[in-house]
Amino acid sequence: MEAAFEEEFATEAIWFGSGEEITIATRHEIPISKAPSIVTVITAEEIKNSGYRTFVEILRTVPGFEILKTGDFGVVIPVVRGLTSTFGNKGAFLKKASLKLLYGEAFRAPTFNEMFTRGQTALQGNEDLDPETIRTYEIGLSYQFNKYITSSVNYFYNDIEGLIVLRLSESNPNTQRFENFGDARVQGIEMETRVEIMKDNYIFMNYTFQNPEDNRGNDLPSTAQHYCNFGVNAHYWKYINTNISTFVSGKRSREAGDPREDLPAYALVNLSVIGKEFFKTMEVQGTVFNLLDKDYSDPGPVSIPDDLPRPGRTFFVGLSHQF
Length: 323
Description:
Elements: H1 2-9, E1 21-23, E2 29-31, H2 44-50, H3 55-59, E3 65-69, E4 76-80, E5 84-91, E6 97-108, H4 112-116, E7 123-124, E8 132-144, E9 149-161, E10 164-168, E11 176-180, E12 184-198, E13 201-214, E14 226-237, E15 240-249, E16 266-276, E17 282-289, E18 297-298, E19 308-309, E20 314-321
Parallel strand pairs: 7-11
Antiparallel strand pairs: 1-2, 3-4, 5-6, 6-8, 8-9, 9-12, 10-11, 12-13, 13-14, 14-15, 15-16, 16-17, 17-20, 18-19
């Protein structure tokens, strides 16, 4: 799983207090506790327990990531701060504390759809798009209260130039076109806590508050100020593991000129149950996404008044066997 993160998103990982090693973008293996970044390691076991099936579902739970879906055209964009860290300073000023100062630079190239979408009445690509660029500054503090509880708090400030956004076409008010339009400043605070009750039994929670604004002081559209994820993993019997989690997103504002109300906040509850070791190495997993069948939508163009509805209650069942 770590290798996949490295290849697809070029991120570096740290898990405070862990002795495991990872391979970062430099292709050198180092202890996780010395990796020059403040992000979260999600183990293969945790992914299996949660029942997530795609990177998008996983990254929604990680502080520092935001998943943007540009309409119903199959474009899913993971937005992450500081993909490449060019400066880091770590000091263990207390036995159980870790302080990090980070500076990073990165860019996001336009996607194929953003450049070459054609034949859509509501959306038009733009071959002249330039990459978005970002400079990020962060300071983070992690503290291990005891062998069970670890918490961290992180302040970040991002300077983004050349934002790629959808803007209403001047020639057709029902069509949106991708353009580089303006810059953005995003600052905020992230907090994360994990409580290890006993082996494979833990509580996790994280919260992000951010203030995303463009260079004119307006809120960035389709971006929430508040994100939260919390849940519990219970391995109460050797044959059964249960994981339940809740993802909460605050309301999201509209593009300038869009007369519709802001997209409301929503919360999604996911449940995963694994039966294992009851027959050699066979495992059975059942997962329910959006357990409470919450109605929510991704932002869509003005020509789609009710936006783009997301799936309701969804069931997955899997069977695996190791030979």
